[in-house]
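To whoever is covering the structure queue this week,

Two jobs came back overnight. Logging them here so there's a record in the thread.

Job A:
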Amino acid sequence: MTHRSHGTGVFRLQDFAACGEQCVFETGVLVFHPENIHLGKNVYVGHQTILKGYYKNTMSIGDETWIGQQCFIHGAGGLTIGRRVGIGPGVRIITSVHKDQGRDIPLLCSPIAFAPVTIEDDVDVGVGAIILPGVTIGYGAQIGAGAVVVDDIPSYSIAIGVPARVQRARKQ
């Protein structure tokens, strides 16, 4: 039986499109297509996280961003994560989805649609949250633990639930 792989996920810092000073990669981090990943300064990537770059589009992670352990960060559709963003353990960020071509074609066999995700500066994403393709999370927003973000979240909003809904604005 013949099989192929997308690679081992093992990387060297010089493989990245950009990697700022003092980035930390904990044990078990896997990186795919680092040539399309841009990291700012002082980025922390927790244990067993996967940075899943893609052969096209880019993943950009801003200065002083913290990514918890066991996250899956997907960049196929394009991903921009701002500065000073906190991403809790177990978060999933997805930038593609299979298109529904009707019942005659299994979803797994249907074409893939790509949509970028943007997370602006100073956002906090709670443990286990899922961010789906095409979403923008505005400056200073907070996403609750376990939330599933399917729509844009305005700046300085607190969003919780499945699907995530804005509950209120953050205090001034």
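Job B:
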Amino acid sequence: MDISQIFKNNQNWVQNKLDLDPNYFKELSEGQNPEILYIGCSDSRVTAEELMGVPPGYAFIHRNIANMVPTIDLSSQSVIDYAVMHLKVNHVVVCGHYYCGGVKAAMQSADLGLLNPWLRSIRDVYRLHRKELNAIEDEEEKYKRLVELNVQEQCINVIKTSEVQRAYRDRGITVHGWVFDIHSGKLIDLKIDFRKILEEIMEIYRLS
């Protein structure tokens, strides 16, 4: 790809926006008030705003390999803190996707260097759910189920944070787990039971 084409595309995009609304960029520069914190995968095939069908400014976005929320990862934890405590989002979404390369890599016994500690967190998800996963004979279905379980566990990691616990107490913030099906283009709601999870983990993870 000729990288200069990016700038031509940008010029066309700017003009298209201005043709529709001459104040578009002026209003965009005045600040943000997103409703959603979206935590997704860095996969180049999965674009957050496009798959949700929302314009810029609607969602605060954080992406990394396999949509992880490690409890000691300063990047994801800082994003949660800023989005929940300062931007006052009302929804936190963890969105995984089928055929995720990070999840597939975690299922393989291979030394991947710097990726090892990151993938270890996904392997921990497998360990927690190994009885269910090992009972699935079809490898593709097992792979897809691990994608779902990983989203579920990352939602739990979000719920463990003091910011989300306080925001739930103060204004009823909710946490959602979704999966994007690349084959169909559809979003799947895993129907994470936020209140039930919160009740189950509060004995250990209550931070308020």
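Note for Job B: The beta strands are 36-41, 59-64, 91-97, 174-181, 186-189.

Please reply-all if you pick these up so we don't duplicate work.
Q.
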